[in-house]
Amino acid sequence: MFISKLKMLGFKSFADDTSIPIDAGLNGIIGPNGSGKSNIVEAIKWVMGESSSKSLRASGMNDLIFNGSATKASRNIASVTLQIEVNKESISKNN
To answer: Is 88 buried (19+), middle (13-18) or exposed (0-12) by CB count in 10 A?
Structure first.
């Protein structure tokens, strides 16, 4: 079982609908400072049940919603969805 896709809308720095495919095995996230690398990990933590805003680098849960920028309007909600794949071959071996 593994996470195969992460979808975010309005979560922290991800104002637009963003979908990130995740392959089985080792994956890396690279980019310049301030590009949202840590926000991807925090989105996974949040959708898995993290309820401490401090653990998500926010002063409150409202800080998890995109607050707007010079070119984009703020959002009213944040949405994060995980797609999880189950390897049927490994399940049948365990039966």
So the answer is: exposed
Task: Decide: pTM greater than 0.90.
Answer: no
Distance of CA 66 to the CA centre of its chain: 13
Residue from 44, 11, 62 nearest 53 by CA: 62
For the chain, first and last CA: distance in Å?
A: 15
Q: What is the CB neighbour count within 10 angstroms for residue 37? A: 15
- Per-residue pLDDT tens over the stretch 7-46: 999 999 999 999 999 988 899 999 999 999 999 999 999 9
> 27: phi > 0 → left, psi -120 to 50 → alpha, else beta; which?
beta
